[in-house]
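Ticket #4471: structure output looks truncated?

Reporter: J.K.
Steps to reproduce: submitted the chain below (566 residues) through the standard prediction queue, then opened the result file.
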Amino acid sequence: MNLLGKATDPKFWAEVKNNPIYKDALNSIWRDYNTYCIGEIETTKFSKFRLFKDKGDRNSYQEVFFKRQHRMYTMAFMCLIYPENEEYLELLQDTIWEICDQYVWALPAHIENIEKNDNCELDLDATTMSMALAMIKVMLSERLHPLIKSRIDYEIDRRLIKPFFAKRWHWEYRQNNWTAVCTGATGCAIMLNRPELFSLAQDRLNEDMRSYISSYKEDGVCVEGAGYWSYGFGYYVEYASMQKIFTNGQVDLLAGEKIKSISLFLQKLFLDRDVIVNYGDCGAGTDVSVPAGFMYGLKQLYPSDLQLPPKERLTIESHYFPFCLRAFTCFDSSFVAEDISKNAEYYMKDCGWFVKRTEKYGFSARGGCNGESHNHNDVGSFILSIDNDQVLIDMGCRPYTRQYFEHATRYTYLETSSKGHNVPIINGKYQANIPEAYPTTSFENGVFYVDFRVAYDIPELKKLVRNYSFSDTGVSVCDNFDIEGECTFTERIVSYIEPKINGGTIDYGKVTVNFDPELASARVEKDIHAKELEIDGSLKKGVDIYLISIDVKEPKDKFEFTINIK
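Returned output as attached by the reporter:
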């Protein structure tokens, strides 16, 4: 049974090499080759492996770890596209050999107790590495040395098959991207490399996948954000597609309106041609991209409903091996990125997300809750985009460290605290991380409402309802509140742009924020958004962030400000 279709056909890869329609994908493979495949294979040192536990530094070890992965995946494509070059095959086999020797395929950040000396931990990378090796073995078949194939079999059995059947894993209960990625990669690896065992795992794997899909509501919103949507749902699609072939169509996890709704999620997130809503642990709004191959696969499923994003938002990277493969096998020359429609409006009521595009601006606001996977305390926050850039922003995430994911320190950071989001500061307090508190939203007569009192752990706060109303030239934001006793109320507005403040006008150039200067005054402070790490794991300087505070002088029952497009 051929589970990989034309990816196993040398004639297809000969067409890839010679047909100019594959030029972009080929250029991406050559880019990765020049980046990751020149020079000696680096070793994964213990001194770097232990840094996550000792200091919280993930980057020093992961840089080498991922470079080895990238090299193996890239060389697999080079061998498929250029079979005549024996040097490519030798480099691939050398890299596979080194990876089979690697102490553990899981990342230190995902190993609960490294002193336990258990090198068969199943995490995102151990499972996806196993799947990729199984795919490489199938596609390159007899071209691989018998010992290489034997080692692949042995290591997949030792590092994936036996641990999976030995117990239930934590990611089977998570209901987030981990569940889909680990389950999907495990299932695909079993179907490809140990098909005789799949019947023993199928019910369990499908149960895990149904649990993952249950984390979505009917509106199809991935509360983890666009990046984790493509990662998690991408492996769901890989598994479901392969299982459908494996079962001769008897099991189809891609059927149903909910799967379609999830598949169409991304096209609702665009605020402008190159700007995506980036709530949670995403990159900046102009940095969020999704794998091209994943989108091409969805386009095949929903040719008339799914809108491909602009080319700038699509990536082809060998690191995401099955998605990179689909960039070739699912590509169709008829696929074109359509311009996003202006004058569009989406209210995703189940999760409380709202997106609006007009001729002059793009806008989004959110309800949600402060207990989501990859959560930020940002209920009620908003984003404003103009001229293909965010002006009033969501910063997205900061670089991943151990401390970033520890509950005691998670919300001390600007990126995760409501201090760094466009929401009020009440009695000097920011929003709290209260997973069980669910704000409510509604959209009536063109006005988006968020009732988010429960996001603040403030007993004296009896009411807090924010409403967003819209015109052709801007947005009006009104907070209605009831606070017992004396209180302070400060509106927070965040931007990469340093504004000029003149009375009741905050001027960002093409955008102004206006309020009644009799009722409030504005001030600005500068902070740092940490976007990247140095090679040694330390934070780079970061990007300047300007935090505006609009202090209401005598808080009563409401305060309003307007966002105007010049």
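Triage note (M.O.): checked the attachment and the full token line is present. The chain has two domains: 5-327, 344-565.
Status: closed, working as intended.
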